[in-house]
Every structure is written in structure tokens, then in C-alpha cells.
Request: fold
Amino acid sequence: MYEERIEAVVRNLERRGLSQMLACDPRSIQYLTGAYVEPGERFLGLALSVGRKPVLLLNELFGAPDGIPCDVRAFKDTDDPLALAGELFDPARPLGCDKNLAARFLIPLMERGAASGFVLASDAVDDARAIKSAAERDLMRAASRTNDAGMARFKELVHEGVTEAEVAGQLEGIYRELGAQGHSFAPIVSFGKNAADPHHEPDGTRLAAGDVVLFDVGCRQDEYCADMTRTFFFGEPTPKQREVYETVRRANEAAQRLVAPGVRFCDIDAAARNVIEEAGYGPYFTHRLGHQIGLDVHEPGDVSAAHDAPVEAGMCFSIEPGIYLPGEFGVRIEDLVIVTEDGCEVLNEHPHELEVLS
Reply:
């Protein structure tokens, strides 16, 4: 499996006219080798070269699992890892660099003349990661099933007077009970007017009758990430709240119906955005429609007006339209989809229908 992934990245490099690359993103290295290390301030790198076995450079404090498809060169805190890295590349050729290669490492490599030039080449790895294998798709499905089960329990935590922070503090324990390893990102729990902030951080706001209740949550299970948003109503919604909710629901479902191989990301975004604009709420849909997801909760390749590439079978991304009315309330409905050969598979089964909590 890992050898095939490495071969795919090397082919991507060759198509870009490159023969060598330094990958530094921990999740990309995990994707290519099975070894996951969070190096903190220390250097971590995977040297990829055409015709050579990859070499993993890591501090000896971390170690590497047996059987990974690369050579391992460990170094001590007192060693110079960049001297080791420089030995692995042809100084007469350009070096593809990871977008996460910190300046404190990149600039010394440049000063040492480790390559003839330095080129941003993260897309060689990103493009490979974007197409999920059958095994990865199964892991994404399983993580989303757990997220659905979590959402069913999260809404039971809601009662008058509870704070956002009190609810948010209970979510990780529920995920762990359900078999996940924890959160895939810091959860968003928003009551009332706080839901008009798409990235609100849970605080001491207490739930009151008439509030919307927005959960944007995800778990990490077997290393793969889930992500889902649902908006509920604590008490009977007003006509305006119903109108906004139904508009967002229709926008979500319009975008999902369009997803298929060959359809552009920007057109999927437009399908949802047009529904919201036609309802008169265009200025209040303030973010892109979605993002790709897998080992990271946000992976390169967004679903937005600025991304005109076509989607491909095996890609997995979110569909998350929203309407945010400052000082009033907000609504977002988010699902994950996997692109199939003739459409898409929606990974979330928690219903879209408006739900009143009491």
C-alpha cells in the first residue's frame, strides 16, 4: 500500500519535471510510510528521489515502526539534521519542497546549496492524498457513522440554562465511548446569536428558549477525520428561522445532487450559493462551500468559486452552506460526500429535517 502511494507521488513529481522532494508534513509522511510523528520544533523530513528508496530523517527521541517502506536516519538533538538532509539530494537539480517546510530549515538548505533551486511541490503529495483508496473510503465511512451516533447523543445534552462550554466539554468523552480517539478539531457549540459567527468558540453563553443550537463537530477514528454540522431549535422556531433553515437545507441538497466526476468544484459551490442568493440571503453566506478531508480535517482542494478543477472519483469533501445573520442567529448544515463513478455517496445519515429540541 505505502509503496504504491510513494510511486504515485514520484510519478507526480516527474510530471512536474522534478526528480527529488523533501516532504515535512507529518500527516503526509504518515500517508506515505505509516509512521506518524509530531516533531514539535525538531526537524522531520522524508526525502523522495526518482529511482531511490525514500529516506526518513527523524530525531531518535521518536523512533519509527518496523517495516516501513523507507530507510531511516535518526539523529540526536546535538546533530545537524540539515547536514544529513543535504547529503540526500542532488545539488545540480531542483528540490521540490513541502508547503510546511519551515523557513528555519528551508533557508539553511538554500544557503548550503542543497539543490539548484527550490520549488513548492506539495501538490505532488496532495493530489495523491485527494483520491481515497477503497480502504480509506471505508475508514471515512466508519468515522462518519461514529459522528452520526455522537450527534444523536450530543443533542440530548441540551437543556435550558446549560452553557455552550458545558456541552462542548462533554463531547470528547462521548466520542471515546463510541470508539473514536477524540476530536478531529475543536468542536463548535453555538447558541442563539453566537451561531451567526461561523467559527464561534464555546463560551459561557446559557441556552434560552427560542435559541438555535448549532453543533459543528467531528471525531478522529483510526486516524481518519469526520466533520458534520447540524442546527437545531430550542423551542418552536419563528417563521424567519424556518425560512432560513429551509433555504440552507435546499442549498445543501442542491450541491449534493450536482456532485459527480468531471463537475467543477466552483460549480458545486455555485449550486448551493445560487439557492441562498435567490432567497435574498446571498451576503450572509460568507465562506466557501466545503473542504477536502481525510487524515487531516482540512486538506488542500476547497469547494469554492476560486477552484475550477473537476472533481474525481474517490475524492472526499464537505458540503456546508450556511446563512449567518449578525445579532440574530445562524444556520449551517454540513455533510461529507465521497465522489463515486456516477455521483456521490453522502456519509452522514443524521437527517436534514428541521428538528425542535425541548
Q: What stands out?
A: Residues 256 and 319 are 7 Å apart (CA to CA). The radius of gyration is 23 Å. The longest strand covers residues 52-59. DSSP finds nine helices and 20 strands in the chain.
